[in-house]
Amino acid sequence: MTAQITRLTREVQDLQQQLGRRDRRVQLLEREDEGLKALQATYDAEEARFGSGAEVKGASSRRGTGSPFDDYGREVGSEDAKAMIAELEAELAESMEAANNAADKIADLEQQLFELRATINAANHVPPKTRVV
Predict the structure, then answer these.
(1) CA–CA separation, 2 vs 43, rounded Å?
(2) Residue 63 near residue 39 (C-beta atoms within 8 A)
(3) pLDDT, tens only, 52-93
(4) Measuring CA to CA, which residue among 40, 44, 100, 90 is closest to residue 68?
(5) Where are the beta strands (DSSP E) in 35-128?
(6) Could you tell me the maximum CA-CA distance found in the chain, to the nearest angstrom?
(7) 55 CB contacts (<8 Å, ≥6 apart)?
């Protein structure tokens, strides 16, 4: 009798766990659906903003089939965008150069620190404003 009760309670617990997993899966799918709807709304807003004159890659094949992420790009030949890209690339190059200079300076300072440690460990270091007798 007690074995049957433990078996039934174990089955109930298993069913509750399965139900919990399915509930979490449903919640996850609902959130994913909301995200995809928001992405579609953003895409539609961009399409309305740029009008039908903007070139869209694969626009005819995208509607109604496949993932909303497929062919989610526009061919925008704006001079402002190109100028902004060039400006950002120049800033990136300057930042990379500054980072390389900083890395070189760090390497030099690490070398000096290594040499100072060697001098201090050898007891040859005399602190400033100290007289040696």
Answers:
(1) 61
(2) no
(3) 654 545 444 445 555 444 444 454 456 777 788 888 888 888
(4) 40
(5) 55-56, 74-75
(6) 96
(7) 74, 75
Phi (first) and psi of residue 55, to 5 degrees: -80, 125
Q: What pLDDT score was predicted for residue 51?
A: 73
pTM: 0.34
* Closest C-alpha to 85, from 96, 73, 98, 76: 76
Q: Which residue has the tokens 């120049």?
A: 90
pLDDT of residue 24: 87
Rg (CA), the chain: 33
For residue 44, give both structure tokens.
């539609």
Judged on CB neighbours under 10 Å (0-12, 13-18, 19+), 4 is: exposed
CB environment 33-46: b (16+ within 10 A), e (fewer): eeeeeeeeeebeee
57 in Cβ contact with 71 (< 8 Å)? yes
Which tokens go with 46? 């961009």
